[in-house]
Design goal:
Oligomer: single chain
Shape: globular
Distance between the termini: 53 Å
Strand content: 25-35%
Structural class: alpha+beta
Largest sheet: 12 strands, mixed
Number of helices: 20
Mean pLDDT: 85
Helix content: 25-40%
Number of strands: 26
Radius of gyration: 29 Å
Length: 708
């Protein structure tokens, strides 16, 4: 699609480069001086109509092409792979370090890629539409795709890279072996619509160069509202490819070279390698050889035709701007570790991650549109295998969605009187002055918004405060402290910064402060080096005060509920009296151990209606080359060291980044955390569950225990 003509000067210069014609040669053909051609290219002058006809003849095209300048007069060069030469100083990179900032996990990819799409929303009156498509290729479909990406020309580079005795090389070797053995390839396409697209020049500052050419460049449309700030999120696309290969098709919101549709490029991330006696630095690009002498033969983006996007499985729907990323050889290391890597499991995991992290962005009202729409679809050889699943916050997070809708619609209350009420409270965040503000600068107070409502019966997790800012991506979930007994399950959300749907200086300052307190994963608010470098002393204390204020606000609401039954609560309130949380001493928090061994990082749970403890456990996992094989043990009455009375498990279920073989917990290498749930066996309880605390400890599985 062409929205407007390209300026004559840049267009003419590109045609000369494509034809390998100098300005002097064109001047001789059309009968003008070289200085005249230079003036046309720089925009200082325009050719006369009779000269335009001669220019058209010189390029072998018609007058309309020269006047309209909506296409090139000189045919494009065949697309090919350009591999970056090795550094002349002998430096070597054996992989893209940015890719190691995150786990090779579909859930992580969905969080990071969708956050980037939200940050690039173009029309604020409409949601960004994000669609994930899993597509398995076999047989002729598999072979045709390899032909489209010029696979034969890549074989020698893959062979050399796979033999490097480094982590990336070993992973590539396994990916190639699996592809050849299975004769299949899994693609994952991430489409967004109503986004800006990869606008800007090939090599200079802009969205295109930030994504395709650079690392740690967070080039966002509105940096004040951006969820990301490190420029690392895009690396999850390449990290999720076993082959290090991602192809891109972008529809631009702002024309480049007079065009907007089908800007195509591919990027391959390989380690340093030697091929045919020549050394290469790492990355390679798939595109049209550049004719600009400063970048001669470097593969640049090209304007594709529909058949090319079809062959590359990059076709887009309609003309709405945005970008499609195709992850070639997609895999999920966490799912492999759990033995649950089938297409249905991957489809479900994408849906779960979108719901968990973006339910708030997908929530709207009749007058306030949602920020995001998201769906997942799975294909095999072009045919639908699993129908498109639209992720609905009302179905997956009903109570939380109800709370946010009430706030957006102005329908919150001051006290709970029914199971559908939503209470609103202000929670003050004090933003300290910047170090650059100068002497005498004062802090700014920002009223964040706490919303609380009774939990829904279908909620898998509850009684936590879900915190967010910016475009309403979930930052963290945590349980408030010291709530006491008898608290009925609830859902709470803390909105800060732009998530409050307000504007003003305090909102801008709060947004920047909280963003500075987030690590690259954007999954908690804590001390960071950026926070220390940017704000005056005491910034960490302000975060602690903010957490305490949020806990106090929750306590003020649910504390009343413990003595004033909510209408309609009935037996649910009585059942909740059996619940003992970590704050009350029911579930005892684990003691910290050394970082060289997996530790129970967090645990929560409740006594269910059968009298069993139903527990949810998160495990922090240090790095090692071999899988961890662990035996989780539950103990009653323990003092934090696992020295209490052990009880049997009635049920153990792997939740995330792990698997169970009988009662042995298996965690793959490279995983940073794992989660599992367990239910104790009532017959093994030495005392009634509700009368004692419970701990969970981890030990190495005994020799001879079950192994995968």
């Amino acid at each position: 699609m062409i929205n407007e003509s390209e300026d004559f000067g840049p267009w003419l210069g590109r045609q000369l480069r494509r034809r390998d014609m100098t300005q002097a040669e064109l001047a001789a053909v059309v009968g003008v001086t070289r200085a005249a051609v230079s003036a046309w290219i720089t925009g200082r002058a325009q050719p006369r109509p009779e000269t335009v006809r001669l220019i058209a003849d010189a390029f072998g095209t018609d007058l309309a092409t020269v006047y309209q300048r909506t296409s090139d007069a000189v045919a494009a060069r065949p697309v090919t792979w350009y591999h970056r030469p090795a550094h002349t100083d002998g430096g070597r990179e054996f992989g893209n370090a940015a890719a190691f900032a995150f786990d090779a996990d579909l859930g992580v990819l969905a969080r990071e890629a969708t956050q980037n799409s939200l940050d690039e929303r173009r029309d604020p009156t409409r949601p960004v539409r994000v669609r994930y498509i899993l597509h398995e290729l076999t047989g002729e479909h598999f072979r045709s795709f390899l032909d489209a990406v010029r696979w034969e020309s890549l074989k020698s580079h893959y062979a050399a890279a796979a033999t490097t005795d480094q982590k990336v090389g070993r992973a590539l070797a396994e990916g190639l072996r699996e592809m050849e053995a299975s004769g299949s390839l899994l693609l994952l396409r991430v489409d967004d619509y109503n986004a800006n697209g990869l606008t800007g020049p090939e090599y200079d500052d802009g969205r295109f160069a930030a994504v395709v050419r650079r690392q740690l460049d967070s080039h966002k449309g509105d940096n004040r509202r951006a969820g990301g700030s490190y420029g690392l999120g895009k690396a999850t696309l390449w990290a999720t490819s076993r082959l290090g290969l991602v192809l891109i098709n972008s529809t631009l919101s702002v024309p480049h070279e007079g065009r907007t549709a089908r800007r195509l490029i591919g990027r391959l991330d390989l380690p340093w390698r030697e091929v045919g006696g020549e050394a290469f630095a790492g990355p390679a690009w798939f595109g049209e050889p550049d004719s600009d002498r400063a970048f001669e033969n470097v593969s640049r983006s090209w304007w594709g035709v529909e058949q090319e996007t079809t062959n590359l499985h990059l076709e887009r729907e309609g003309e709405d701007p945005g970008t499609s990323f195709l992850v070639v050889g997609a895999h999920d290391a966490a799912a492999v570790a759990a033995g649950d890597e089938g297409l249905q499991a991957m489809h479900d995991k994408l849906c779960d991650s979108l719901a968990e992290n973006f339910w708030a962005a997908m929530t709207g009202t009749d007058s306030v549109p949602p920020l995001l729409e998201a769906s997942v679809r799975t294909l095999r050889n072009g045919s639908e295998l699993i129908p498109e699943t639209r992720v609905s916050p009302e179905q997956r997070r009903p109570a939380l969605a109800r709370a946010l809708r009430a706030y957006l619609a102005g329908e919150t209350v001051t006290e709970l009187t029914s199971r559908t009420d939503v209470v609103e409270r202000a929670v003050t965040l004090t933003v300290p002055p910047l170090r650059t503000d100068g002497k005498g600068a004062t802090a700014v107070t920002h009223d964040a918004v706490l919303l609380l409502t009774p939990a829904d019966n279908s909620d898998r997790t509850h009684s936590q405060v879900v915190s967010m800012r910016g475009n309403r991506m979930r930052i963290t979930s945590r349980r408030p402290r010291d709530l006491g007994l008898g608290v009925e399950p609830y859902q709470a959300v803390l909105l800060a910064g732009f998530a409050t749907a307000r504007d003003g200086e305090d909102v801008v300052r709060a947004e920047a402060f909280l963003r500075a307190s987030e690590p690259p994963e954007h999954n908690r608010w804590e001390w960071t080096e950026e926070l220390s470098d940017t704000y005056v002393r005491g910034a960490k204390r302000r975060l602690d005060e903010f957490r305490v204020a949020a806990d106090n606000a929750v306590r003020a609401i649910v504390g009343v509920r413990a003595v004033t039954p909510v209408a309609g609560a009935g037996p649910e309130l009585l059942r909740s009296l059996l619940k003992l949380t970590a704050a009350t001493g029911g579930v005892r928090k684990p003691a910290r151990r050394g970082r060289g061994y997996p530790t129970v990082d967090d645990i929560d749970g409740e006594v269910d209606t059968t009298g069993a403890w139903s527990l949810r456990v998160r495990v922090a996992v240090p790095q090692q080359d071999d899988p961890w094989h662990l035996s989780p043990t539950a103990c009653f009455g323990a003092g934090g060291s696992g020295s209490g009375s052990p009880v049997r498990w009635a049920e153990l279920t792997a939740t995330e980044n792990c698997s169970f073989v009988k009662d042995v917990l298996v965690i793959a290498p490279g995983v940073r955390y794992a989660m599992f749930s367990g239910v104790t066996d009532v017959d093994s309880h030495p005392v009634t569950a509700g009368r004692t605390n419970v701990t969970v400890s981890l030990r190495k599985a005994v020799e001879g225990a079950a192994r995968p």
